[in-house]
Amino acid sequence: MAFSSSKVSVFSSYSLSPIVGDVPKNFISCSSVSFGLSSFPFSSLNLYKEGGRGKLMRVSGSNVSEPVTGLIFEPFQEVKKEALAVPISPNVSLARQNYTDETEAAINEQINVEYNVSYVYHSLFAYFDRDNIALKGLAKFFKESSDEEREHAEKFIKYQNIRGGRVILHPITSPPSEYAHAEKGDALYAMELTLSLEKLVNEKLLNLHSVADRNNDPQLADFIESEFLAEQVEAIKKIAEYVTQLRLVGKGHGLWHFDQSLLHDLE
C-alpha cells in the first residue's frame, strides 16, 4: 500500500511504505520534507512518532537524530524565555506574571477605599445602637454593611497576594460620631450618605476595571466583574429604595415602623 501527495501539511512530498519486520505502527517513511521555503531531500528519511505522542524524529540507520522542529509544542524550549524565568531573590514574588506596578498600586487604593467605607458604616452602627437612638434595624444594617466592606477589602488583599503584589495599607480617615440632621433627621441623612458612598465605591471599581483593561490584564478584569460589579449595582438599588421609603415616612412614628421592618428583613 502506498500513497503520495504534492502538498500535505509541511511535507512537499509524502509517502507511507510498508516495512518488512517488526516495526512500530507509527513508523513513517518520507522522501522529502519541506520547512517554510526550504526543502531537504533525503534518499531515505524515516520519521516516527516517539511514544505515540506525536513527536516526529529524523532517523538515520538505527540512530535517532534531532527532532523535526516547527511541528509540535516544545515546552523545554519555550520555558527558556526571560519572562518565564523563576526569580532567585527571596524578596521577589515567584508567582507574579503580567502584573504591572500600576495595577498593584490600584489594588492597594481599592483596599483603602473598602476599609474607609467600612469604617464609616461601623461608626453609623455605633450611632444607631445608642440607648437614646435605639433604632435596632438601622444598627444591624450598618453593622452588616461594615462587615461586608471589610470582607471586600480582604478579598482584594487575598487577590493582591495571589498575583504576587505587595499589600500596602494606607491611613483610614476617622469618621464622625454624630449623624443628627435638623431637616432630614438622622436616619434619612445616614441612608443618603450610604447611597453616595456606594456610588463612590462603584466608581472606584469601574476605575480599577479600566486599569485592568489599560494594562491588558483580563484576569483582574474577570475578578472585578465576577466578584463585585453586579453585587454593587444591586446594593445601590436597595439603598436607593430605603432612601425613598425614609423620605415618605419622615422623622416621626413612621421611622420606628421602617426600622422594625428593616430589622425583621435582616433576621
Task: Describe this protein's structure.
The structure is a single chain. The protein is of the alpha+beta class. It folds into two domains: 4-78, no CATH class; 101-266, Ferritin. It contains six helices and six strands. The strands form two sheets. The protein has a four-stranded antiparallel sheet with strand order 3-4-5-6, with no helix packed on it. The chain has a two-stranded antiparallel sheet with strand order 1-2. A hairpin with a 2-residue loop joins strand 3 (27-35) and strand 4 (38-50). Helix 2 packs antiparallel against helix 3 and helix 2 runs antiparallel to helix 4. It is elongated. The chain starts with a strand and ends with a helix. Mean pLDDT is 83; it is low at 2-19, 27-45 and 47-56.
Give the N-to-C terminal Cα separation. 79 Å
Low-confidence stretches: 2-19, 27-45, 47-56
Task: Please report the total strand number as a whole number.
Answer: 6
What is the number of helical segments per DSSP (H or I, 4+ residues)? 6
Q: In the CATH scheme, what's the topology name of the largest domain?
A: Ferritin
Strand content: 5-15%
Question: Which CATH top level class of the largest domain fits?
Answer: Mainly Alpha
Structural class: alpha+beta
Shape: elongated
- Radius of gyration from the CA trace? 33 Å
Instruction: Write down the secondary-structure element order.
Output: EEEEEEHHHHHH
> What's the number of domains?
2
Instruction: Please outline the major beta sheet.
Output: 4 strands, antiparallel
Rounded mean pLDDT is 83
Strand arrangement, major sheet: 3-4-5-6
Q: Which architecture of the largest domain would the CATH scheme give at its second level?
A: Up-down Bundle
Q: Give the helix level as a range of percent.
A: 40-55%
